[in-house]
Structure prediction request, 513 residues.
Amino acid sequence: MSSRIRTDVIELNMGPQHPSTHGVLRLAIKIDGEVVVECDPDVGFLHRGIEKLAELRTYIQFIPITDRLDYLASMLQNQAYVGAIEKLGAIEVPERAEYIRVIMMELQRVASHLVFFGAMGLDLGATTPFLYAFREREDILDLFEMVCGARLTYNYFRPGGVSRDLPGGFYEKARAYIKKQREKLPEYDDLLTNNQIFIVRTRGVGYISGDDAVNYSMSGPSLRGSGVDYDVRKADPYSVYDKLDWRVAIRAEGDVQARFLCRCEEIRQSLNMVEQALDMIPEGELKCKTPPRLKLPEGEVYYHIESARGDLGVYLVSDGSDKPYRLRWRAPSFINLGAMNQMAQNWKIADVVAILGSLDVVLGEVDR
Amino acid sequence: MSELIEKAIRDAFPDAVLESRDVFGVLNIKIDANALLGICEMLHGQKEFDYLADVTAIDWKDRIEVVYQLTALASNTKIALRVDLDEQKPEVNSLASVWKGANYQEREVFDLFGVKFTGHPDLRRILLPEDWEGFPLRKDYVIPD
Prediction:
């Protein structure tokens, strides 16, 4: 700061009701002039005690509650939960069900990243990209509605498979969507990615080094934007990800733009994966037989997947009954938010919005 | 790989390892809570466990167990460290000086289980309001109407 003008550090309260906090998040910011001295995220406004709720419900009853964690990527939440049950209970999943799940999960990742794309533009003052992204996201939600009847909270995965088969006409509609989305992506880039104002607002802003990002236990595109090659789909392949041909999106720069570009590349990779899975999906069973009142053997398991926001872990402890003894939800948004203070320090107050946007937090998952 | 890590811990901290077992291919080592910080500094420094994937706790009614999931990203090696704490006065050293990611995760365990992490830079409630009474994920917690 200039030494000629004396400034005091003042506290600025941002949120919990604020259009660019992506939900009910409060940032307690200390600023010196326009420069951020400290940025302390205050979370918990949406805390519903979901880990406690799990202990009071049977295994099957908890599936719809997982939809309400990261509500922009509910299919992925379903997988994290039923995957942990299947691992602990040694429940086999038929191959057709695995392919259906991968198609759903990758479409979900695209839908989630489209919301990110739109919201990122919105945060920086560009309204139009948001409308474009939501137009295409609508097609994905239509596909989900065909499959399970719901557009946001799907409750579609079951231990041992999925609740119902893909309806007639799904393949054609999914392929048509992929074609359309690929045609629209260059339009997105013209609008936002290559927009001079957007580049200046994001390049170099909110830098975090790869070592720091790892030390903060960050994950997902927010970690890969700092050049760290860690994606659970490659590191610990689950479902049928090892049969698909794709690559992990990484950028070395560690700034807001790098995290943004990682997600843009992931949209393209996910579209490729869905296309491959549509070609490879076999006929067969949808769900293996499980007892109506599912009990798991005594024991514990730590299972994790790559959600749209990062390394989503579920730690499940069973005492042999039909309810979890303990269920822990390792939410990537929550842990990524832990690095917010370091990323925002010494940037201008206007950059805080861009930095927070680049972490792509969902408060349903942060607060649980 | 896991055997080598267990041996390294046993060599450096002869009495600290209380029990070890395999949980779905991940070595779980129960250690003496007093040795936790030293072991973690060694694992972080020498054995390249650079990623603290998860910190959580389980209330076993007679004790509270804190579980740490560690990953060495370069070799994708995983281990879990476990410590048993006294149910009445659960207290253990904070790992925030080793992994900054421990800061938020330990605050959450403090908030919901009441485990005190000594040496934590900013130990206060994170999900619940500051004036909340009790620790909801304890088994003896009575859910208010």
Q: What stands out?
A: The mean pLDDT of chain B is 89.
